[in-house]
Write a structure and sequence with these properties.
It is a single chain. This protein is α/β, with parallel strands linked by helices and 391 residues long. The chain is globular, with a radius of gyration of 21 Å. It has 11 helices and 15 strands. The strands form 2 sheets. Strands 7, 8, 9, 10, 11, 12, 13, 14 and 15 form a 9-stranded mixed β-sheet that branches. The mean pLDDT is 95. Helix 2 crosses helix 10 and helix 10 crosses helix 11. Helices cover 39% and strands 24% of the residues. The structure holds P-hydroxybenzoic acid. P-hydroxybenzoic acid (PHB) binds next to helix 6.
Length: 391
C-alpha cells in the first residue's frame, strides 16, 4: 500500500472506531466483553490462566448481571502488538464490544490504548504491568499490578537484610526497565550498591552468557525480573551453572517464582525471597476457596495472571450492575473508579485518580510444604500505590 492509501485506510478505521464507540448501550443486546490474550507463543501461559479464571468467574457468578446477558469473547493475539490492535478494532467496530480486556504484555496494551480513547471503550488491563500503561488512555483501568509496586518492597527488604551489593537482571522492555530503575533507587536510598545492570532480550532469551557475567561480578545478590513464562527456564540455567551454590543470593519479583511453573522448578528455587501481590498460598478463606475451585476445573494452580483476570471480571460485573445493565463507556468507567473489594490476593482498590490498582505487596520465600513448592508470605507492605505515579 502506498503511504496515502495507508493513511486513508487508517483514517477510515479511526472514524469507524469513533462511531462504533457512541453506539453501545442497547440494553436488550448482550453486554460484550472482548478479551485479547496471548493463547499461543511464549506468553501462552498468561492466556491460559486468564481464560480459566474467566470461566470460573462465570461458572460461579452467572452470565446475567442486572438483567443483561454477559457474553465474553476471547481472541488470541500471540502477544504481537499489531495483531492486538487489529483485533481491538474489529471487536469495537464489528462485535460492538462494551469493554476491552486482557493484554498479556506491555507493548500489546500500548498498541491498543488509542482505540480505547477514540471509541470511549473501557480497557481493563488484567496482565501487563509497566507503570505508564494507565497514562496512555483515560479509558484504561488496571487489575494486575505495576512493576514499581512489586519491586520497591524487595529492594527495601534486601537492603535491611545484610545485602550490600546487587546486580540487577531484567527483561529488556517496559516492565524490566521499571523494575531495574525502582530497585536501584530504593536500594541505593537504603545504603545499597548496584554493581552491574544486565538486560536480557524479551524474545527467546538464552540466559547463559548473562549468568556468566553475574558469576564474574560476584555480588551479594542478583535481583531478577522476567515476565511470567520465563521463570522455569531461568531457574534451570541458574542451577546448571552452579550459581545456586556460589553464595550469590537470588532475589526477585514473584513473576520469576511464578505459581504457574513453581512446582517444576525443583530445589534450585527453595529459599528464594521475592515480593509480589499474589501467592496461591495466601492464607485467606477467600483464596483457599478460589485455589480449590480453580484446581477442580483445571490441571494447574492459579497464578497472579489468573487473579488479575478474575478481579477484572469482578470489576466489570460491578460496573454493569452500577449502571443497572445500561452500560455505556463513560458510565462504566465512572463506576469502576474507586471500586474497593476483596480479592483472592487481599483487599484491592481502583484509585479514582490514576485508575491503577492499590494493593498489599507481600514478601515471600519459596518453601516446600506437603511435597509442593509454594511462595510462603512472611511480611507485607499494606495498600501500596504505584510508586511510578509519584513523579
Ligand atoms: C508486561 O509485559 O507488562 C508483563 C508481562 C508479564 C509479567 C509482568 C509484566 O509477569
Amino acid at each position: 500500500m502506498d503511504r496515502r492509501l495507508a493513511l486513508r485506510s487508517t483514517l477510515v478505521t479511526l472514524a469507524a472506531v469513533a462511531l462504533a464507540g457512541s453506539g453501545h448501550a442497547q440494553s436488550n443486546a448482550p453486554f460484550k466483553i472482548g478479551f485479547i490474550l496471548p493463547m499461543t507463543g511464549q506468553s501462552a501461559s498468561t492466556g491460559k490462566q486468564i481464560e480459566a479464571a474467566i470461566k470460573l468467574w462465570q461458572a460461579q457468578n452467572g452470565t446475567t448481571v442486572a438483567g443483561r446477558k454477559v457474553e465474553v469473547i476471547v481472541k488470541d493475539d500471540g502477544a504481537v502488538p499489531d495483531v492486538t490492535k487489529r483485533i481491538a478494532q474489529e471487536m469495537v467496530v464489528n462485535d460492538k464490544v462494551d469493554v476491552l480486556a486482557g493484554f498479556g504484555i506491555t507493548p500489546c496494551a500500548f498498541a491498543t490504548a488509542p482505540i480505547a480513547t477514540q471509541s470511549k471503550t473501557p480497557m481493563i488491563v488484567t496482565a501487563a504491568a509497566t507503570s505508564a500503561i494507565t497514562e496512555r488512555s483515560p479509558y484504561i483501568v488496571r487489575t494486575s499490578f505495576t512493576l514499581p509496586q512489586a519491586t520497591v518492597p524487595i529492594a527495601d527488604w534486601a537492603a535491611k537484610h545484610g545485602i550490600r551489593k546487587v546486580v540487577t537482571f531484567v527483561a529488556d522492555y517496559g516492565p524490566g526497565v521499571d523494575a531495574e530503575k525502582f530497585f536501584k533507587s530504593e536500594f541505593q536510598l537504603n545504603g545499597g550498591q548496584i554493581t552491574g545492570e544486565i538486560r536480557t532480550p524479551l524474545k527467546s532469551p538464552d540466559f547463559a552468557p548473562f549468568l556468566q557475567k553475574v558469576a564474574d561480578l560476584k555480588p551479594d545478590a542478583v535481583f531478577v525480573f522476567l515476565p511470567s513464562g520465563q521463570g522455569a527456564a531461568f531457574m534451570k540455567q541458574f542451577g546448571e551453572r552452579g550459581l545456586d551454590k556460589s553464595g550469590i543470593k537470588l532475589i526477585a519479583t514473584g513473576d520469576v517464582t511464578d505459581d504457574d511453573q513453581l512446582n517444576d522448578m525443583g530445589d534450585v528455587a527453595l529459599g528464594v525471597v521475592n515480593s509480589h501481590h499474589y501467592s496461591a498460598a495466601h492464607p485467606s478463606a477467600m483464596n483457599k476457596k478460589f485455589v480449590a475451585d480453580f484446581q477442580a476445573m483445571n490441571k494447574f494452580r492459579p497464578n497472579f495472571m489468573a487473579v488479575g483476570g478474575w478481579d477484572g471480571m469482578h470489576l466489570i460485573y460491578n460496573a454493569i450492575a452500577a449502571t443497572k445493565g445500561a452500560g455505556g463507556g463513560d458510565a462504566l468507567l465512572a463506576a469502576m473508579k474507586g471500586q474497593l473489594f476483596e480479592s483472592p490476593r487481599g483487599q484491592i482498590l481502583i484509585d479514582a485518580q490514576t485508575r491503577d490498582i492499590v494493593q498489599d505487596v507481600y514478601i515471600r520465600k519459596v518453601e516446600r510444604q506437603n511435597g509442593q513448592l509454594w511462595n510462603v508470605e512472611f511480611d507485607v507492605r499494606k495498600a501500596v500505590k504505584d510508586p511510578g505515579k509519584a513523579k
